[in-house]
Specification:
Chain A: This is Carbohydrate ABC transporter permease. The structure holds two protein chains of two kinds. Chain A is an all-alpha fold. Chain A has helices spanning 6-37, 41-45, 59-66, 68-99, 107-119, 124-133, 141-144, 151-162, 166-174, 179-190, 192-208, 211-216, 225-237, 247-251, 253-289. Chain A is globular and about 75 Å long. By secondary structure, chain B is mainly α. In chain B, strands 1-2 form a two-stranded antiparallel sheet. The two termini of chain B are 23 Å apart. Classes of the chains: A mainly alpha, B mainly alpha. Chains A and B meet through helix 1, helix 4, helix 5, helix 6 and helix 9 of A and helix 1, helix 2, helix 5, helix 6 and helix 7 of B.
Chain lengths: 290, 330
Amino acid sequence: MVKPSRSYRVFQGVNGVVLTLVVLVTLYPFVNILARSFSGERQIRAGEVTLLPKGFNLTTYEIVFQDSMFWRNYGNTVLYTVVATAVAMVLTTCYAYVLSKKHLKGRGVLVGIAVFTMFFTGGLIPNYILVTSLGLKNSVWAIALPNAISVFNLLVMKAFFENLPTELEEAAQIDGLNTYGTLLRIVLPLSKAVVATMVLFYSVSFWNSWFSAFLYMDRTDLMPVTVYLRNLIQGATGGGNAGAGTEQLSQVGANIQSVTIVLTALPILCVYPFVQRYFVSGVMLGAVKG
Amino acid sequence: MSTSTTSAPPGTEDPPPAPAAPRRGKRDPARTGWRRALRRDWQLYSLAILPLLFFLVFRYLPMIGNVIAFRRFEPGGSIFGEEWVGLRYVQMFLNDPTFWQVFRNTLWIGGLTLLFCFPVPIVLALLLNEVRRRSLKRFVQSVSYLPHFLSIVIVAGITMQMLASDGPVNHLLGWFGHEPIRFIQEPEWFRTIYVGSEIWQTAGWGTILYLAALTTIDEDLYEAARIDGANRWQQIWHVTLPGIRPTMVTLLILNVGAFMAVGFEKVLLLYNPLTYPTADVISTYVYRSGVESNSFSYAAAIGLFEAVIGLILITSANQLSRRTVGTSLW
């Protein structure tokens, strides 16, 4: 290798500073929110809270934990995520497997049907009318069914299935397994990596989603925790703490949002370090084909 | 498509081909082909039924449902409306000053997003690519991906907390003796806030594909460039950037396609009546007039207009890039 020039060393130095700034700017809001969630009302109002909690207390956490609606909505989030992910996985796996069979007659049309929906969608109003007229409102199906297949995930999975060695499947069929048996006993056990990735993709997106529930649920006790948080935020901007509801809540309005943000993001932040690489590999797999 | 026996995989339960099999395709090839495909692969086709039903009901039916833009619709009635009214709703929105305001706002926010959120990941990826310490690179990557995984509600919540009158940004302004700014209530700040939080959330994740593309560039090309006397910048200009050009073009096309559909959910979370003059975009206007005010046909007409423009944009971006740089999505 050539000895690095002086200007290159300067560049490396600047680069280091820029990337450090990137890390700081990305992390600071998290740390600040965490610090606020443990801080006292007065210190937050005075703008004293930066990296560490000031006037440490757990009052706000206690108040949120005592709010039965918070737990209800948190439970709803878990329920919606599990049901919607299960539905999505079944449909996506089936279709991806079909699309991965290169010899299949009409495969091009089947791929086209899916891919076209990436570029043109019905839009909010027709979807809303459809879901309403199907009577899905106020049920988990309003969240699970309209979002059952993400075409991006479908293409990722299809790409993975296409790269599986065909010999094993052929051997299984000679041994008398039908298509369903081959998919369940041969293909899926070989595809644990992509199945895990897809479960993560779907469950994170359903955990994070709020708009479907906001649109299709009429009662507060059916909302997921993201909508609970949204109501807190909107209450705050609309002036006062109208969205927060109880008197107790408005007393600590300053950091109740921080506490709810922390609690909503917590599960994602906990699994993030372990699952991050699956996401990255999933995106790459999708990009190869996409 | 002829049904020659060449492609039949082993192990299928086909009856052995008749002696004259290769010639069989001559009589009505399509028909025989389908019958044969169905007999051989009916189990595969059966797996596609539920997913196809999904696409039909939840993707294509709403597309057809857009006809209510040209029909009178009654809540509780047919989802395709009651009777034709022609272009009444289209004329209505074309004569609606609010529509033109949200149209302008959409162009502004979409344009600014494209201008800032498209190049930032490229620059970040190039910078990351220059980091020699693997552990350091991995750490920066892991941190910068993080915001991508958070709910848009959390991002909106964090944004508001950061910009609150007692938040860090105003705290910082205070150091310079500046009066606190009520960012969330000021229309002139909305675009900055929107684009800023968008970069914060998406820049890191956006680098993944570029970093992958960067690793595929042949080291020999850099070696050759060095021998030709290229300095670092020239190497980036002549080797690195051409190497990631297909990725850049693909993502640019996708970004242009998403131009009109600016982050609907984020605007919905961040805006309020005070900031409507700059923040209200087509999709939020559609939501308010349709779902909140029950003017379904009117809202559907505007939504359809937006979707058609989006389709035109992505198709023309795709055509343009196929003609000029030879890369395209399809």
